[in-house]
Amino acid sequence: MPDFLLWAYAALIGACVGSFLNVCIYRWPAGESVVHPGSRCPSCGTAIRWYDNLPIIGWLLLRGKCRTCGERISIQYPLIELTTASLWVAAVLRHGFTWQALSSAVFFTLLLGIALTDARTYIIPDQFTWGGLVMGLFLSLAPGGIDPLQSFLGALLGFALLWVIAVLGEVVFRKPAMGGGDIKMMAMVGAFLGPPGVLLTIFLGALFGSLIFGPISLKTGKLVPFGIFLALGAGITEPWGHAIIAWYVTNFLNPA
Fold it and tell me: What is the pLDDT of residues 95-153, one digit of tens each?
């Protein structure tokens, strides 16, 4: 099969997954079902016809407005669909049409959903974390990626480390220092990346959080949605983690 057809299939699947991800991002934090009711205009509540609900294309054909009431439909919808499609194409470009490509695409889709829901609502739904944990453990059984033992140990380490950090932080600061969603998120990340990936993800997440929003948080006293930075750290670790760890070991632990 020609490569461009594989890329087109990946883009189509990714766009459809992104369309569903939009629903999850809006409904799961509110405790709503993603099955019923169907997609509706957020302004007038009119059910969206199937041909208006086509990923990316539907929004463009409607020019970003509801067909019934004419109210604007957020550009977030096609942007998330386009981003997810790009993530799935990138996974196929890296790994070919393999199980490892599927694992990478699913992982980045979960990270995108977590980052956006945490940014919008300060909530990381269990469907992303526990559901992602199950998918990570299941995909470790497929050939070409992390082995099941490393997946299990990574999930265990990710959960345990964040739980300890949360407990110690609450003792030191005398208030919750980390949400339970972050702890469960790292169990999911560990299932996909293994123990070394967990350590690097936490380090990068803490680094980005401290540099970007640490000063703002100290000034305003508001809790920073740490899941955003953990997602960023995991997104860097997945493709480049082995190279970063090898560089660190070579230059700092085993200097010439």
Answer: 998 999 999 999 999 999 999 999 999 999 999 999 999 999 999 999 888 999 999 99
Rounded to two decimals, what is the model's pTM?
A: 0.92
Phi, psi of 40 (to 5 degrees): -135, 155
Q: Is 99 exposed, middle or buried (0-12, 13-18, 19+ CB in 10 A)?
A: middle
**What burial class does residue 188 get, using C-beta atoms within 10 Å of its C-beta: 0-12 exposed, 13-18 middle, 19+ buried?**
buried
Distance (Å, rounded) from C-alpha 151 to C-alpha 234? 15
Instruction: Write out the two tokens for 141.
Output: 């059984």
The residue type at 133 = L
